[in-house]
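> @MW can you paste both from yesterday?
MW: sure, first one:
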Amino acid sequence: MIASPFTQAGPGLFENGYSPIPIMPNSKLPGTYADDSWKTAKGWNDYCTTRPSQLQINYWSKWPNAGVGVACGLGLICIDIDFEPAMDALLAMLPQSNVQKKGRKCQSAFDWDPLSASKRDPFDRRALLVALGSSELVGVAETARARVV
């Protein structure tokens, strides 16, 4: 059996200071798994202000086909640019981001500063970053490792 994306990347993201959460298979929604079925998770945004425990990470790592998301907050922000004509101008105004994700019609830039974890989010909102492929998550984890160590 192939390990789920959460099993592959979640523990490493947690180790590097992020708040990984399980995502339902074939979805972009945070989920819970019980009685052999997935349901939409309630309260996932609590992980924007409080990291999950190691026990939760270990438990979630056993869920089949769990995708992985990272709750923004605690020093992590995501700027999602959906208006393609303004993309270049907006990116020029933002600080350089080592981790970016580009979709068909949008681009997302991420910044993580563990020292600002106690500061208020400058955008004053909660968001969920969903990384759909494990290669994107490796980039996030490697960037954190490079900046923290």
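MW: second:
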Amino acid sequence: MKKQTRWIGPMAVIFLSLLFLYASGPSGCGNENCGNGILDEGEACDDGNTVDGDGCNSFCENEEPAGTGGATTGGTTTGGTTGGTTGGSSGDECATDADCPASLASPAVCDDPETCQGHRVEGKCSGGVCRPTSIPDDSACTPASFTLDCGSNPGVSCTGTPTQSEPVCPVEVCNDLSDNDGDALIDCADTVDCPNSTTCNLNPGVGFCSGGICSD
């Protein structure tokens, strides 16, 4: 009778252990409540089905869903869901200049009025990142910015065009029949720039300005 008692004890323990494993199942295997939509004891999740690949598998265990990958919106990549390839979500990331935000740009300014030189700022895509970049632009340099004093001749001002050169007072050419310096006086008539003894257009090499006229 003692031998039988010693045998029944261990068998009872084994039987109860097997019964417990069957009730819970390894990793939820055999759990008849899995898929009922109720988080029962031993379940990490329960989404109301036993389909794998939706985040909660057929054993009511959490799983990583397949990634959907990144989506591109307006040239800027946004990250995909868990398991997908996570792209940049920063507004400063870019593929082309067109992807850069307008907030990086600023209007033209006149940096040096005396030379009529200025710049503006634009967002430029460099190495996949938008960077504020200085662009030559002289359009902010207008006549109101600077006028070069040319003495008896009209002054020279900035023009307000995007590309300008440094203002330089023009010089009258005394033998080309043109008003080069803008003072409405041509050749010898411009006695300031073409004084007496200056070669004029009449009989080149012989004619000279004298009293505002060209004579030989």
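> thanks! The CA atoms of residues 78 and 193 lie 69 Å apart.
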